[in-house]
């Protein structure tokens, strides 16, 4: 049955004008013609053959009644034509908007099918060309990141070996700490640059177990991290490693600036909400949006251990957006900062 419908649909499409303007013009002409034919049929008595025993038309089928019914039929036909025309106009825009939204979450998605009217096919072709250019640019970025990673790590490795030959133990310790810090900064920056291009598959993830694992790992390092309340929820379709890195960055940020982290989970029909609350001084309202920008740091001492690289929250925000969610920061009335991660529930796609 579906094949028959597809054949009928293609046959109808082949008989229509190629452009949207032509289809709308044809629809208007057909509406006027059909409406006039129906009115003429009413006037001739062919559509309402209600006769009395003497062969006369009853009063209910008088000329005035027929004209009124013809006017009503004009309105119905125009409404039907307006609905069809609105559907022709809105459906391509809806598909294009849906594809653009999916593109933000999955850059490797399949190109859109070039179908429909001439204008729709042209818009789809331009969209697919833009999609292809973005994929090429991201591939070039990956190559650049890989080259930079190799070029930077090689001299750092040589420096590490040469430091070991220094005679002064204090110099060895100082140079060694600087090299370790540089290596960590390079690793963090390159990891951020690679993050958006990571094509990790979506899997059903037990978010509650993930939160408990992250909290236990932090507690093993003598950090004050606790999971509050019940976190047993229905598994979420997400990228496991990316979500672990996202929540881990929120916990690290809370511990660094607030000395503690309290994690709570709220399960809702359409989304999952993870909140990380610290006991720190909070952030000025004017800075809440800025700290989500890459390399932006509130702490200006230049010490990476107190101010970080400025990528933790930016990475978490990118991962949230990649999942179709959001990350928001707010100062808690009782003190401290609350980072709220909202992730939409998705239906697993089947082949």
List the helices and strands and how they pair.
Layout: H1 2-15, H2 20-44, H3 63-105, H4 118-163, H5 169-195, E1 203-205, H6 207-220, E2 225-227, E3 236-238, H7 240-258, E4 261-267, E5 271-277, H8 304-307, H9 312-322, E6 326-331, E7 337-344
Parallel strand pairs: 2-4
Antiparallel strand pairs: 1-3, 4-5, 5-7, 6-7
Helix pairs in contact: 2-3, 4-5, 6-7, 7-9
Give a quick set of tags describing it.
single chain, 351 residues, alpha+beta, Heat Shock Protein 90, 5-stranded mixed beta sheet, 58% helix, elongated
Task: Provide structural commentary.
- The protein has 351 residues and is an alpha+beta fold.
- The protein has helices spanning 2-15, 20-44, 63-105, 118-163, 169-195, 207-220, 240-258, 304-307, 312-322; strands at residues 203-205, 225-227, 236-238, 261-267, 271-277, 326-331, 337-344.
- The protein folds into 2 domains: 2-105, no CATH class; 203-344, Histidine kinase-like ATPase, C-terminal domain (Heat Shock Protein 90).
- The protein has a 5-stranded mixed β-sheet. A two-stranded antiparallel sheet has the order 1-3.
- Strand 4 and strand 5 form a beta hairpin.
- Helix 6 crosses helix 7 (240-258).
- Mean pLDDT is 77; it is low at 50-60 and 300-307.
């Amino acid at each position: 049955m579906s094949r028959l419908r597809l054949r009928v649909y293609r046959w109808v499409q082949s008989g229509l004008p190629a452009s949207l303007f032509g289809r709308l013009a044809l629809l208007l002409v057909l509406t006027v013609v059909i409406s006039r034919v129906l009115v003429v049929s009413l006037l001739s008595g062919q559509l309402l053959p209600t006769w009395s025993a003497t062969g006369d038309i009853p009063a209910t089928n008088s000329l005035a009644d027929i004209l009124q019914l013809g006017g009503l039929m004009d309105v119905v036909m125009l409404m039907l034509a307006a609905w069809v025309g609105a559907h022709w106009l809105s459906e391509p825009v809806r598909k294009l908007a849906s594809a653009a939204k999916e593109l933000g979450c999955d850059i490797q998605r399949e190109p859109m099918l070039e179908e429909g009217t001439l204008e729709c096919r042209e818009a789809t072709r331009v969209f697919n060309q833009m999609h292809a250019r973005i994929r090429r640019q991201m591939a070039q970025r990956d190559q650049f990141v890989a080259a930079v990673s190799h070029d930077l790590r090689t001299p750092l490795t040589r420096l590490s070996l040469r430091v070991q030959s220094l005679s002064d133990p204090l110099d060895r310790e100082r140079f060694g700490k600087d090299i370790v810090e540089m290596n960590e900064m390079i690793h963090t920056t390159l990891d951020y640059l690679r993050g958006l291009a990571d094509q990790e598959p979506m899997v059903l993830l037990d978010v509650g177990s993930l939160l408990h694992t992250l909290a236990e790992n932090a507690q093993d390092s003598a950090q004050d991290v606790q999971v509050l309340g019940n976190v047993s929820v229905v598994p979420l379709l997400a990228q496991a490693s990316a979500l672990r890195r996202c929540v881990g960055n929120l916990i690290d940020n809370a511990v660094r600036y607030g000395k503690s982290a309290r994690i709570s989970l709220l399960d809702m029909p359409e989304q999952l909400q993870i909140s990380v609350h610290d006991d720190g001084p909070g952030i000025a309202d004017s800075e809440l949006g800025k700290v989500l920008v890459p390399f932006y740091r509130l702490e200006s001492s230049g010490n990476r251990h107190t101010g970080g690289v400025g990528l933790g929250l930016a990475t978490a925000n990118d991962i949230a957006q990649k999942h179709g969610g959001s990350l928001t920061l707010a100062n808690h009335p009782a003190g401290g900062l609350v980072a709220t991660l909202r992730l939409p529930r998705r239906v697993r796609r089947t082949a």
